[in-house]
Amino acid sequence: MMAVAIRNHNCTVLNELRPGDNIEIDRGMYSHWAVYKGEGKVIHMTGADDDGINGNVNSASVFTICGKRFKKAFVKVDDFWDVVGDSKAYKNNGKDRKFSPCSVDEILDRALSMVGEVGYNVLWQNCEHFASYCRYGVSKSSQADTFFTWAAVASLIAGLGAIVIGSSRSSSRRTAKE
Prior knowledge:
By secondary structure, this protein is α+β, with helices and mostly antiparallel strands. It has helices spanning 2-16, 80-84, 104-113, 127-136, 142-177, and strands spanning 22-26, 31-38, 41-46, 72-79, 89-91, 116-119. Helix content is 43%, strand content 19%.
C-alpha cells in the first residue's frame, strides 16, 4: 500500500518537472539531489555501485558513508525511476528565492559537461552542491550548512560548559583555601 502511494506521488512529481528543475529525493536521514534533464532522465552525482554514496542507496544504508573517505564520485544520466527507487521525490527549486536560476540550456549544459568522474566530499562537494551549481552557478548545500550550524552550536555549548565548570572549580578551590 505504501509503495503504491509513493509511486503515485512520484508520478505526480515527474509530470510536474521541467528540464533544469532540481529534484530532492528523501532518503530518510539525508536527501539525494538531481537535475531533471527531461524525458524521464535525471543528471546526478553518485558513487560507484554499493559504495554508500550511490544515489540509489536506500535510507536503511545511510550510515555506510560514515567513517569512510570518498574522494571520487560520478556524474551520471539515469532514469528518474532508477534513481528515486522507493523514496519520495520532490521538485525543489527553493533556492530560487535567494539565487537566480540560469537558463535551462545553461543548467543542462553545465550538468552534462560534468558527466564522468568528479571529486566528492560530503560537506563541500556533494550531490546537493552539484545540483545547486548546475541550476544557479553557486555550489550550495543546505544539508551541509545545517551540519555546520549544529557543529558550531555544539562547540559553543561545550565551550560555555567548560567555562562554567572551570569557574566552578576555581571558586571551590578559593573557598577551600579560605
